[in-house]
Amino acid sequence: xxxxxxxxxxxxxxxxxxxxxxxxxxxxxxxxxxxxxxxxxxxxxxxxxxxxxxxxxxxxxxxxxxxxxxxxxxxxxxxxxxxxxxxxxxxxxxxxxxxxxxxxxxxxxxxxxxxxxxxxxxxxxxxxxxxxxxxxxxxxxxxxxxxxxxxxxxxxxxxxxxxxxxxxxxxxxxxxxxxxxxxxxxxxxxxxxxxxxxxxxxxxxxxxxx
Length: 210
Ligand code: Z5A
Known about the structure:
Rossmann fold; globular
């Protein structure tokens, strides 16, 4: 059994994952835990190169299969060189997105079969599962309104509303399928309330995690 804990944050654009990540870091520090913070795609030198590549609008012609494999290439590197060693060493890790994102974006969004994604998950992550996944659930239009004015859209942000509606539905379906692992947060609430709800969930699980 591994000693550390893995918490992942999921949700659509502008849902507040980065904001919550910082708040959770501060909350965990009250328990004397200094979590490792990372993100997907990214978190390693290779992963950050993949991130730049897949989000660059200049690569508009990346096919769905290549996009899926690139996400898992970055993920395999993160798991092997960061997540597994950190968890084994007893550290807590908060990761901004993880495998659920591939089911939502490449599966529901791009139409890649879930069974194919499950096969990749088994191979590339050795089925590493988060101890807790916060889904920041927010209507697509609200999320997009929050990020207006942030600069040019990246390659994935350029997808139409219907794509992000599929992504949201897939996230909600995964949360329903794995209720022990997921905690769904109403991301339309003020960020202080979102953080309070997430912190309360960690407090609730704290004793079982000791
Ligand atoms: N992707 C994929 O396709 N497949 C995969 O397997 C993986 C990823 C792992 C990069 O993700 C892209 O990669 C993403 C999915 C794809 N594609 N898209 N599009 P990312 O997580 O780096 O990018 P993002 O989802 O676009 O992040 P974001 O837009 O920065 O959103 P966020 O981190 O969830 O939100 P935020 O930065 O915390 O907040 C956004 C703004 O809202 C900011 O001004 C905040 O001050 C404000 N905010 C935050 N919370 C609130 C509340 N509660 N109320 C009001 N305003 C708030």
